[in-house]
Design brief:
Helix content is 36%, strand content 25%. By secondary structure, the protein is α+β, with helices and mostly antiparallel strands. Strands 1, 2, 3, 4 and 5 form a five-stranded antiparallel beta sheet that branches. It is globular, with a radius of gyration of 15 Å. The mean pLDDT is 90.
Length: 134
């Protein structure tokens, strides 16, 4: 993927108690229509999540995050939404919803290397000082 790419990205958040609107950033989705790039990277910091909600269903949240990734990649195990075209999958993943897994509004940028940009955004927006050391 050489050359300058106009891409969109969104931050994936876990909102364990939607009524409180508290969240932690757990991942990033990057999409470039022209090159056909749609990928995500996720890390659920369980200790951090349990601070917001000690009763959070960690297993269910992890499974839902894995489904998000499968849909992003268009994997058959991601269900009907994973079968949609790239633009439709990105729009579905970033649609405003009131659920435990949400995304920020999409943002745009330019990149010469989309995989590197995904990694950079993940480090900047998701990793904490604790997880950077590990």
């Amino acid at each position: 993927m050489q050359g300058q790419h106009l891409y969109e990205y969104a931050i994936i958040r876990v909102v364990p108690r939607v009524e409180r609107e508290e969240f932690i950033n757990v991942g990033v989705i990057v999409c470039d229509w022209k090159s056909g790039f749609l990928d995500s990277k996720v890390l659920l910091e369980k200790k951090k999540l349990l601070v917001l909600d000690p009763e959070a269903d960690l297993e269910m949240i992890q499974k839902n995050l894995e489904s998000f990734h499968k849909i992003c990649l268009g994997q058959p195990s991601g269900g009907q939404i994973a079968e949609m075209d790239l633009a439709s999958r990105f729009r579905w993943l970033t649609a405003v919803r009131s659920s435990i897994i949400q995304t920020s509004r999409p943002h745009t940028g330019f990149s010469n290397n989309l995989a590197e940009t995904l990694e950079k955004l993940f480090i900047e927006q998701v990793l904490t000082q604790t997880s950077k050391k590990n």
